[in-house]
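Subject: Sanity check before I submit

Could someone independently write out the structure tokens for this chain? I want to compare against mine line by line before I put it in a report. The sequence has 151 residues.
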Amino acid sequence: MATEEFPDSLADALAGVQRTIRRRLRGGMTAAPLRGTQVELLRLVAARPGIRVSDAAQELWLAGNSVSTLVNQLVLAGWLRRETDPADRRSTLLSPTPAGEARLSDWRARRSALVRERVARLTDEDREALAAALPALRRLAHHLHEEGEGA
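---
Independent answer below. Compare away.
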């Protein structure tokens, strides 16, 4: 593959994997499916309970009003709790509800099982190549995140 084609091919492959995982996880669900950004917000809030809406927007690279819309959807679904920040009454703090934690746990388990099953179908060489690429992919994600913060 030509060097100039590699970045686009890599981005396409990564996006395709992520999109396919999301689509496969939607099948067989009894509850309404979570959209990608809803899952991202729920994961972030579960990892950082008490995060402010504005900080979540910055972390997810989304507009504040977009995160507010997502928060409203997830609160209505019973997966997030929204509370006024006692230190700054203008700010809202987010935390997952027990139902949100359970939903996220189920999503993680289903995702893990799906990927584990599909990776097991690969050849030993393919699994080794993917494992060897993980550190570089993590560095790429870190660099992309850092560059975005500076913009």
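---
OP: Matches mine. For the report I'm noting this point. The beta strands are 51-52, 80-85, 88-96.
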